[in-house]
Design brief:
The chain contains two helices and no strands. The chain has 120 residues and is mostly helical.
Length: 120
C-alpha cells in the first residue's frame, strides 16, 4: 500500500478513535440517566406502597366516597408510571449494551482490520 492510502487509513483510524470516545461518553450519560430514572421509580414505588396501604385501610363504609376513589386513582396512576419507568429503564439498559457492543466492534473489527490492512 502506498503512503497516500496508508495516511488516509491512519486518518480514518484516528477519527474512529474519536467516535469511539464519543460513544463512551454517550454510554456514560445514558447509564447515569438510567440510574436516576431507576431511583425515581423506586421513590414512586415507595409512595405507591404507602398510598395502597392507606387506601386499603379506608373503612368499608367509606369505600364509595370520593376520598377512596381519589386514592384508588392515585394508586392506578402510580402503577402505570412504574410500568412506564421500568420500560424506559430497560430500553436504556439495552441501548447501553448496544453501544458497548458497537464500541467493541469499532475497536476490534474495524480498527483492527484497518491496522492490518496498513500493516500497523
Amino acid at each position: 500500500m502506498n503512503s497516500k492510502r496508508r495516511k488516509k487509513i491512519e486518518d480514518i483510524i484516528s477519527n474512529l478513535e474519536k467516535h469511539k470516545t464519543d460513544l463512551e461518553f454517550i454510554k456514560s450519560k445514558l447509564s447515569e440517566v438510567r440510574h436516576n430514572l431507576d431511583s425515581a421509580k423506586d421513590d414512586v414505588d415507595m409512595i405507591l406502597d404507602e398510598e395502597t396501604e392507606a387506601r386499603d385501610n379506608i373503612p368499608e363504609s367509606l369505600q364509595d366516597t370520593e376520598r377512596y376513589w381519589e386514592s384508588d386513582q392515585a394508586v392506578a396512576n402510580m402503577e402505570a408510571v412504574i410500568d412506564d419507568m421500568e420500560s424506559i429503564v430497560g430500553d436504556l439498559e439495552n441501548a447501553v449494551s448496544t453501544i458497548d457492543d458497537k464500541i467493541d466492534e469499532i475497536e476490534t473489527d474495524i480498527i483492527g482490520n484497518l491496522e492490518a490492512a496498513i500493516g500497523a
